[in-house]
Amino acid sequence: MEAIKEAPIPAMDSLTAAMKSNIVPNQEYLLQGSVLDSAVEVLLHRLRGLCDNVDSGPETFHDHEMCFSIRSATPQPLTLRVRRAIDYLDMPYQLRYIGQPELGDKSRPTIVRSSIDVATTPTIVDFLTEMGFRMDFEYILRGYMFRKGRMKITVSKIFKVSDI
């Protein structure tokens, strides 16, 4: 019996196919709000019941995020975000591009925008600085993450870097 060899698929072709079939999401639907500290436990309890990770509970996270920008020929500067996990130093840094909100249906309470996430090494901050980006602001996030299918729900508190 003779084995049939398949020709390797070029990386760009497989990425394009994955994006067309929505395996790699390149859009973000954002709904955000504020919750009083006194109501957080009630919200967390409701999310535990609604989301997929009922048995294991929510994942906790403690992240440091920096926002970088560079001026370009367009009126809007190019903005990139770099996020790293504080509790897990062996995890890769995350570089994130978030596009401008799309004009859409005014009856929807969500913002729709393109987004691309890439895992990087810790040298990404030096690389962006060398390219001419400057850090606009940074903050610490501490909170919980829930999942419901492909949806990710985060409940977090934002801290100034000097407060930690």
UniProtKB/TrEMBL annotation:
<protein>
    <recommendedName>
        <fullName>Mediator of RNA polymerase II transcription subunit 18</fullName>
    </recommendedName>
</protein>
<comment type="subunit">
    <text>Component of the Mediator complex.</text>
</comment>
<comment type="similarity">
    <text>Belongs to the Mediator complex subunit 18 family.</text>
</comment>
<keyword id="KW-0804">Transcription</keyword>
<comment type="function">
    <text>Component of the Mediator complex, a coactivator involved in the regulated transcription of nearly all RNA polymerase II-dependent genes. Mediator functions as a bridge to convey information from gene-specific regulatory proteins to the basal RNA polymerase II transcription machinery. Mediator is recruited to promoters by direct interactions with regulatory proteins and serves as a scaffold for the assembly of a functional preinitiation complex with RNA polymerase II and the general transcription factors.</text>
</comment>
<dbReference type="GO" id="GO:0003712">
    <property type="term" value="F:transcription coregulator activity"/>
</dbReference>
<keyword id="KW-0010">Activator</keyword>
<dbReference type="GO" id="GO:0006369">
    <property type="term" value="P:termination of RNA polymerase II transcription"/>
</dbReference>
<keyword id="KW-0539">Nucleus</keyword>
<dbReference type="Pfam" id="PF09637">
    <property type="entry name" value="Med18"/>
</dbReference>
<dbReference type="GO" id="GO:0006357">
    <property type="term" value="P:regulation of transcription by RNA polymerase II"/>
</dbReference>
<dbReference type="GO" id="GO:0070847">
    <property type="term" value="C:core mediator complex"/>
</dbReference>
<dbReference type="GO" id="GO:0016592">
    <property type="term" value="C:mediator complex"/>
</dbReference>
<keyword id="KW-0805">Transcription regulation</keyword>
<dbReference type="InterPro" id="IPR019095">
    <property type="entry name" value="Mediator_Med18"/>
</dbReference>
